[in-house]
Amino acid sequence: MLYKTYGQTGKKISAVSFGGMRFPNGQDLDDSAAIILHGYRQGINYFDTAPLYCDDKSEEIFGLALKEMTPGTYYVSTKSSHSDGDSLRAQLENSLRRLGVEKIDFFHIWCIVRPEHWAQRKAGGAVAAAQKARDEGLIEHLVFSSHMTGNQISEVIDEGIFEGVTLGYCAVNFPYRQAALAAAEKAGIGVVTMNPLGGGVIPANPERFDFIRAADDPNVVAAALRFNISHPAITSALVGFSSIDHVDQAVAAVGDDFKAYDGDHIAAMKTHIEESFDGLCTGCGYCLPCPQEIPIPQYMDAYNQKMLAGGDNALLGRLKYHWNLPAGEAGKCVECGACEAACTQQLPITERLAHIAALADEKQ
Hints:
Blueprint: E1 3-5, E2 12-14, E3 16-19, H1 29-41, E4 46-48, H2 53-56, H3 58-66, E5 75-80, H4 85-99, E6 104-112, H5 115-123, H6 126-135, E7 139-146, H7 150-157, E8 164-168, H8 178-187, E9 190-194, H9 201-204, H10 220-230, E10 236-240, H11 244-252, H12 263-276, H13 296-310, H14 312-323, H15 338-342, H16 349-363
Parallel strand pairs: 3-4, 3-10, 4-5, 5-6, 6-7, 7-8, 8-9, 9-10
Antiparallel strand pairs: 1-2
Helix pairs in contact: 1-3, 4-6, 7-8, 13-14, 13-16
């Protein structure tokens, strides 16, 4: 297993980390914990969970697994999305109890999807409460998790509050997340990438994503992980594992003989994405700002799932579980055309927003 130093914390974490939201049966605590423990025995030492994952069972699953691990040989990450400081503190204390640990190694201010969410976390006292808990020893490292654009994430990083960030980064959206990675590298903070496999879209569409493979990559999963970990600013790729086989496949991609992609390969990937991804939104954010304050890139990302995974259920699932956005908000579009005029790919944005809004009407 390859290990990389997380920012300036001095902690070396596994280049593949374990995400705890995709257990096939989260109600079966023992079977789910067994997958975690297999990852631990394969060298994974960074374990990420959160309240509400797996119908609010994920932290309990990890608590069961952590009992079997040697203290000092792993790092645990959990999160809170509360804006109110007292609510964050209560959630933190509950996480400590369920995980069975005295402190959270990496505690996230969670799910900052829009700049106003970040403002709310500060104004509501959540950030101050987390800092106080860190001073008390309940949190070791304060970090944040975000799905914002690269430039928006950079602005948060530049405030100098956090020691690390967890952000979405994969072979589809990487040209437009570089600003965040550059800011993280400049600030010397750690970076964990969520959805390095595109939320499962990449392995589900191996032929479409075969362009990311180099000659010595056995499959697109290995290529997607190798691509992430090749970036010097990225500490670890966070994978939501659902089976022991998936763990083994990911671990094999980051063995002791790991070799980073060279610049020519990554440049070729970027060109392919910009020129050949017919109809897929690459998340550049040029469609913003929207006069109606619709988070267009997030809705277009969800529409990507419809195109790649097949069907509206994939679209709605992405909105609900990844972005926490209602489909109905897309109906605020007044078809002014500003977004389409700015879109570098000339996507039919207003048509797609109308489709998403119609799905909300169907569900009523």
